[in-house]
């Protein structure tokens, strides 16, 4: 997955349209299986062959306008499968209205598609609407072969923005974390609030230009941002996880 400007520019030379995001995915359509780049543009999805030679399945059929996307269906049997349902007025090259997508980063792909679809809808019709996203078993049986670590004793597993983590079982979601944007809040019966926020990925070149080439500077900037409006703050733990480059800042507000 990537929203890197240079990579999007290279793919834009094939699509001849500006792109916001792309993902290397496996497509299944009418008995065909093809590994391609699925790109999100301003008004359509663009499918580019893996060797960047041309669009797939053809120059005209390699784009799916958001106006021709009816809804998305996420597979409940796996974290990777996605179904794009198209309307009847779609391009004639798409004989079926079903396009199956297998992607490693399904949540991020659907989020980018949702934002682009809703923006295009407002641009075309002048009113707001939400892209319908439902769930259904797309595979006959659950995906096998995935080893998952179970939560520790007294803890529960949560998933937010495609990231899974363990938190104490005393925490309950304060809102609908299924699609609550970049942040999710959990409350415990002891009066503590836990906020989980996932930031959008930033290209390395932009990080270097903003003097944030190390994760410690990113964590320091974020710590200052979330605490600058508080009168008194106690830092309980301030550390980063080197493998995933995720910063962890725990703080309490003192009245």
CATH-defined fold name of the largest domain: PH-domain like
Q: What helical percentage do the residues reach?
A: 10-25%
Q: Which class do the helix and strand fractions yield? A: alpha+beta
Q: Strand-and-helix sequence, N→C?
A: HEEEEEEEHEEEEEEHHEE
Beginning-to-end CA distance, first to last residue: 43 Å
What's the structural domain tally?
A: 2
Q: Going across the major beta sheet, what is the strand order?
A: 4-3-2-1-7-6-5-8
What's the overall geometry?
globular
Mean pLDDT across the residues is 84
Count helical runs. Answer: 4
Query: What is the assigned CATH homologous superfamily of the largest domain?
Result: Pleckstrin-homology domain (PH domain)/Phosphotyrosine-binding domain (PTB)
Which regions contain 5 or more consecutive residues with pLDDT less than 50? none
Beta fraction: 35-45%
Query: In the CATH hierarchy, what is the architecture of the largest domain at level 2?
Result: Roll
CATH class membership of the largest domain: Mainly Beta
Radius of gyration: 21 Å
Can you summarize the main beta sheet? 8 strands, mixed
Annotation, overall tally of beta strands:
15
What is the subunit arrangement here? Answer: single chain
Element layout with pairings:
Layout (H helix, E strand, L loop, with lengths): L4 H11 L3 E11 L2 E10 L2 E6 L13 E3 L3 E7 L5 E6 L11 E5 L3 H20 L6 E5 L18 E6 L2 E6 L2 E3 L9 E6 L4 E5 L6 H6 L5 H13 L5 E9 L4 E8 L2
Parallel strand pairs: 5-8
Antiparallel strand pairs: 1-2, 1-7, 2-3, 3-4, 5-6, 6-7, 9-10, 11-12, 12-13, 14-15
């Amino acid at each position: 997955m990537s929203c890197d400007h240079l990579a999007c520019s290279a793919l834009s030379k094939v699509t001849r349209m500006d792109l916001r995001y792309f993902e290397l995915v496996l497509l299944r359509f009418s008995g065909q299986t093809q590994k391609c780049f699925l790109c999100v543009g301003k008004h359509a999805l663009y499918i580019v062959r893996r060797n960047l030679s041309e669009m797939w399945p053809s120059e005209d059929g390699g784009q799916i306008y958001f106006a021709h996307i009816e809804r998305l269906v996420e597979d409940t049997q796996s974290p990777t499968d996605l179904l794009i349902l198209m309307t009847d007025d779609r391009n004639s090259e798409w004989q079926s209205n079903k396009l199956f997508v297998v992607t490693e980063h399904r949540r991020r792909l659907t989020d980018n598609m949702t934002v682009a679809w809703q923006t295009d809808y407002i641009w075309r019709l002048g009113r707001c609407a939400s892209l319908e996203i439902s769930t259904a078993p797309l595979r006959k049986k659950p995906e096998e072969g995935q080893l998952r670590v179970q939560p520790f004793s007294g803890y529960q597993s949560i998933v937010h923005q495609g990231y899974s983590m363990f938190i104490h079982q005393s925490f309950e979601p304060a809102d609908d974390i299924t699609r609550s944007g970049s942040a999710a809040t959990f409350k415990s019966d002891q009066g503590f609030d836990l906020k989980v926020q996932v930031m959008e990925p930033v290209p390395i070149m932009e990080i270097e230009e903003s003097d944030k080439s190390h994760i410690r500077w990113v964590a320091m900037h974020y710590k200052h941002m979330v605490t600058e409006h508080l009168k008194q703050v106690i830092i309980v733990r301030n550390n980063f996880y080197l493998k995933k480059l995720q910063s962890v800042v725990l703080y309490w507000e003192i009245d």
